[in-house]
Amino acid sequence: MARDHGGNIDWAIAQYGAGDWIDLSTGINRRPWPIEKVSAQAWHALPTARASRHLTQIAASWFGCDPANILPVNGASAAIQMIPRLFAPGNAAVLTPTYNEHAASLRSANWSVTKVADPHHMAGAKLAVVVNPNNPDGREWSPGTLTELAQKVGHLIVDESFADPRPDLSIASGFPDNAIILRSFGKFWGLAGLRLGFVIAHTDLLAKLAEIAGPWMVNGPALEIAAAAMADTDWADETIGYHSEAGLRLDHLALRAGWQQAGGTHLFRLYSTPAAKAVQAALARNHIWTRQFPYSDTWLRMGVPGNRHEWDRVTAAFNALGRP
């Protein structure tokens, strides 16, 4: 069964025509880290253990944890598919609304899934899943709250795919023994095509996950590019500053259009609109693609435009909507 998700730009093109589309449906950084050069070795040879160790050392500095507790994987989504296979199926609690992938992958591995709206209702679950900050509403929980939750469940999965601009929310630097943390590379660094993510956990769990994943889980160019990108802290600081201001700018456009802010993170904003599907269609006619959710008639999520050309087009599209 097809799962609802952002990034379905092919469907938008089929419905509204080809052209110069701005895809704001995913929350992926529209100002990606600039790739300058990839070595011939990365392209022509199998990925080396040395290249993987080099990346994990740099990632460990970024996450604030021991390199031995990091496993690079083929995207955070790959980890979401593999983690249910680490344990015998049982009862899982998923904090919702959030990515549909977590619940779907658990069910496909024969887990019984309960969706809950509050972390306090997850106690007793064999496996608990929390996205922090959450997608799509940006809800966030302190490391103290999550550490306390870990004491009440069998294993705690914390998906920190949108946490790179918010290190204060991460539990990576001192995670409980029964916690598994997921991090995404593609979202903050804007290079989703590399399909790279990280799992942070204690070594026994990482060994089991590595056995499931098999050899050469991450390709050589991804290892090399990510190591250079994650070491570029000047770029990261500038990017966080840009998105802090740009999110407020997008909020201003939305409020002026009569929408209400419903949440968000540095990389995306969530709004409550009079009729989300109609608004999505109106923006799509201007070749701006956003995310509407099948479980909400009012929520519309938008990524942050990345340059002056995109801001001009988004501003013009908002002005064309008018105020209700």
UniProtKB/TrEMBL annotation:
GO molecular function: pyridoxal phosphate binding; threonine-phosphate decarboxylase activity
Cofactor(s) demanded: pyridoxal 5'-phosphate
InterPro entries xref list: Aminotransferase_I/II_large, CobD, NHTrfase_class1_PyrdxlP-BS, PyrdxlP-dep_Trfase, PyrdxlP-dep_Trfase_major, PyrdxlP-dep_Trfase_small
Pathway as given in its UniProt record: Cofactor biosynthesis; adenosylcobalamin biosynthesis
Coiled-coil stretches: none
Catalysed reactions, semicolon-separated: O-phospho-L-threonine + H(+) = (R)-1-aminopropan-2-yl phosphate + CO2
Record Gene3D superfamilies: Aspartate Aminotransferase, domain 1, Type I PLP-dependent aspartate aminotransferase-like (Major domain)
NCBIfam families (UniProt xref): L_thr_O3P_dcar
Protein name per its UniProtKB record: threonine-phosphate decarboxylase
Source organism: Paracoccus amoyensis
